[in-house]
TrEMBL record:
Its EC number is 5.1.3.6. This is UDP-glucuronate 4-epimerase. Pfam families: Epimerase. It comes from Gossypium darwinii. Residues 100-337 form the NAD-dependent epimerase/dehydratase domain. Keywords: Carbohydrate metabolism, Golgi apparatus, Isomerase, Membrane, NAD, Transmembrane, Transmembrane helix.
Amino acid sequence: MSKQMSHLDDIPSTPGKFKMEKSPFVHNRLRWHSSLAKLTFWSFIFLGLILIFFFRSPSSNPLPQDPSRRSLRTYNWGGPAWEKRVRSSACVRSHNGISVLVTGAAGFVGTHVSAALKRRGDGVLGLDNFNDYYDPSLKRARQALLERSGVFIVEGDINDSALLRKLFEVVAFTHVMHLAAQAGVRYAMENPGSYVHSNIAGLVSLLEVCKSANPQPAIVWASSSSVYGLNTKVPFSEKDRTDQPASLYAATKKAGEEIAHTYNHIYGLSLTGLRFFTVYGPWGRPDMAYFFFTRDILKGKSIPIFEAANHGTVARDFTYIDDIVKGCLAALDTAEKSTGSGGKKKGPAPLRVYNLGNTSPVPVSDLVSILERLLKVNAKRDIMKLPRNGDVQFTHANISLAQRELGYKPSTDLQTGLKKFVRWYLGYYNGGKKAAG
Ligand SMILES: O=C(O)[C@H]1O[C@H](OP(=O)(O)OP(=O)(O)OC[C@H]2O[C@@H](n3ccc(=O)[nH]c3=O)[C@H](O)[C@@H]2O)[C@H](O)[C@@H](O)[C@@H]1O
């Protein structure tokens, strides 16, 4: 050890009592030494903080309360028992049946489509992240319903590529019915990130896995009537312009249609987008107007009814769930195979888009009148100007393409459909006594 070092070692530990050496060399060494000590000290503190954070991290404590951080949730999957359930649920039980991965299976449309597929003997495996955009207990009740008919819902996110790859490893799905999405037009202004997460990143994650699967599945997925945005030509036909979305929700669905084009073009994936028009019915979504109007009419709360400028009517082409389910099954049945394999395109594959609507728009105020009659309660109407929150004034589907190519023929008018909804609602929420989310 050098002399100088031993001298430095003799420095008193109380800095205030230390007399500075004149030599600049000694001065620098001293500063270096004390900075090293400080650095070590702070590194320990920092490491300690990281360890504390790690052990309290969301893996064991998901953050369902914060919707923008839903992606941080982790799910348990894997293992022989889990694989057995996956295989058994996806097992085809009818001659010429198909095996379908249904994403968003605990959702409104997902539950109905899964049940219908299972009923006719197809293999069905559900996937859902059970997020808390609306009351998750409703999703759990739908899950219980599906479980009773033999459909297993894997808990996980479509952004989890490892999980998706595992599912395709366990089952050679012939089809994917992709219904997992962040829905709702107005909520996009509150939580834009969740739309990008589910409707764009999630879609790409799913298509990436589908493109590499061998065999590649055919994919049918939920687009939306909202892609017509500010289009004023009615009824809306698939050939009309869709480049003026009025909400971020609509923009992400439109982006989905363009992304579908790319994966079809490069990888030969068979892709069918279905533009749903305001789907309603039993087991529906509590964020939709017909649902929370029912809840609030029963509670005696006033309901906001939007109207356009100059008392202009706001109307929707409300479409009953059973008609939508028939359209979904027909889209799956007519989807030709994807042509690629192992991520390589072998030839052109179909790329389709269909309107699934009811072809008869109903003003929102008429929807409220029907509900009043069915519930036998007068609504407290609060007529207000259509807020600038992404809503469009009206929707109206031209369904001739779906009629021709899918045999789609909606047969439920709003009065009949709402009657079925109200019957379910009163039963499910115990005559309105149980709280509706
Ligand atoms: O078909 C579609 O493309 C879309 O249909 C619905 O969106 P929307 O038609 O806006 O359905 P609701 O939120 O149930 O609204 C229905 C009607 O009630 C009106 N409304 C809504 C809320 C409210 O407080 N007051 C009110 O008058 C809306 O302006 C709209 O005309 C779904 O929420 C979307 O996920 C779906 O993609």
